[in-house]
Amino acid sequence: MSAAPSLPDLTGSTYVVTGANSGIGLEAAKKLAGAGGKVVLAVRDVEKGEAAAAQIPGETAVRRLDLADLASVHAFADAWDEPITTLVNNAGIMMVAEGRTVDGFERQIGTNHLGHFALTNLLLPHVTDRVVSVSSGLHNGPQVDLDNLDLEGAYKPTRAYQQSKLANLLFTAELQRRLAEAGSTLTAHAAHPGYSATNLQTHHANPLMNKLMWVGNKVIATSAEFGARPTVHAVVADLPPNSYIGPTGFQGLRGAPGPNPRSKQARDADVARRLWDLSEQRTAVSWGL
Ligand SMILES: NC(=O)c1ccc[n+]([C@@H]2O[C@H](COP(=O)([O-])OP(=O)(O)OC[C@H]3O[C@@H](n4cnc5c(N)ncnc54)[C@H](OP(=O)(O)O)[C@@H]3O)[C@@H](O)[C@H]2O)c1
Q: For 6-22, what is each residue's pLDDT tens digit?
């Protein structure tokens, strides 16, 4: 594997990284803090967050954030009072058994999209540079179901994950459109890691799939350090608005980070607007600027 790209001096910058206690979030946090940035680990389990922070060189802080509970998202944002250079919407769950967040949303769309939607809008007045959201190559699938976002009566673990990761890209596009319309200099970008061995692949609804993915993690997957490179590139590089960064080599799984293609569904500006409106209704959180 090629060497990790070197980073500019990030002294004076502050990064909020959701789910920074594990996998790609942890590796991204190490890189950003290692280059001099202050990293705030926004985690649902503070003890795990403290253990992760102990492995990170540089300045860190740990704050509790449960994206599957809007009260927790509000509490995090209400307590926030300093500039954020970049918000990194990284936390996620994948292909879990059907379930609901505290607020009654299907768990994958609730955690991966709606929680980050609310967090971003609530924190946006503090953000000074950009918002980066971590999507997935698996976003490439059917369009989000705007009439049945919770996939009530139609739940399939893979469909729900794909929908939530497509929502991350539609959210990024509409966020960028709104920022530009408001005359803001902030930008919105997305990233994906390819396929990296992390804890993500251990919670599948079907235990057999966990075994298969365990093999995949050993045989095909890259490391979490490799998977964090596109995220960090999206955080620090000079990019056109609404960039989508991933590995540029073999099938978006290997190689240096750079622009990656997104599906036709992810480029549908009308659906992006309607998903935004629906997300405002569902979370009762509105445009942050
Ligand atoms: N690994 C891959 O191959 C891959 C591929 C494509 C996209 N991605 C994306 O990369 C991102 C990071 O995943 P990963 O691979 O690093 O997986 P990971 O090691 O399982 O990390 C996921 C992180 O999200 C946190 N999280 C889960 N639910 C949360 C909630 N309700 N509130 C706050 N934090 C929560 C987890 O916290 P706990 O430790 O407490 O569970 C953990 O810190 C995800 O968005 C995922 O969809 C990963």
A: 899 999 999 999 999 99
